[in-house]
Design a protein that fits this description.
The chain is of the alpha/beta class. It is built from 8 helices and 10 strands. Helix content is about 30%, strand content about 25%.
């Protein structure tokens, strides 16, 4: 089976169980082909097989750290692909169009996260990181316990941390309202299963407290 799995035209995913101490965290990276090269969202652990698979698709142009938590594996990718431009959350927090065929919207009002959400227009794929999680099951009991403690195990759910870290709910709500106006038919998350059934409704439900008047 190929390391990269197709999500749509010029769009792929790759998943792994990343070691975080005694935990094994399910993680996903999304890779898009742009005119200038590949765009890698939330890089996961870089294995030789993954590096070969990515290089077979094209040169790496962008390495995207979409929030203040997803940077752990960036150095591995930077070392292997030194010519790629690294994008950090504060660089993505702009109304300027940064990537051809990809829209972006930062979730304002949550500065400790500063998560940027993306829309790959050609495939109608919404790409989120930790805005909500969708870990339905996992063989590692410590992983199940950890996601359970976050209040985000067994179904699509936003972790409790978002409530604690939100300093301006109105700004967060306006950011989400912008995203919900986009047209998308599936949502990829950094942790857990892809949402393909009623994705907009799932996003509304998982972030309902943010959207409340």
């Amino acid at each position: 089976m190929s390391v990269l799995q197709p999500l749509g035209p010029d769009l792929w995913e790759v998943t792994a169980d990343a070691p975080l101490g005694a935990l094994r965290s399910p993680v996903r990276s999304v890779i898009a082909r742009l005119p200038e090269g590949l765009w890698v969202h939330s890089p996961i652990p870089l294995t030789p097989a993954l590096a070969d698979a990515v290089e077979a698709v094209g040169p790496i142009a962008h390495l995207v750290s979409p929030n203040h938590s997803h940077y752990l594996f960036l150095p591995e990718w930077q070392q292997r692909f030194p010519d790629a431009r690294v994008w950090r959350p504060q660089m993505l927090n702009t109304s300027e169009a940064l990537f051809e065929g990809i829209d972006q919207q930062t979730i304002h009002g949550v500065p400790k996260m500063e998560e940027c959400v993306f829309l790959h227009r050609a495939s109608k794929t919404l790409i989120v990181t930790d805005l909500f999680l969708n870990v339905r099951t996992h063989p590692n009991w410590m992983t199940r316990a950890a996601f359970g403690m976050l209040g985000a195990y067994g179904r699509p759910k936003q972790a409790f941390l978002w409530r604690w870290r939100t300093t301006d709910r109105k700004a967060a709500r306006e950011s989400l309202e912008t995203i919900l106006r986009w047209e998308f038919s599936q949502i990829t998350v950094a942790h857990g299963e892809i949402v393909q059934e009623a994705p907009a409704e799932v996003l509304r439900a998982t972030c309902a407290w943010m959207l409340a008047p």
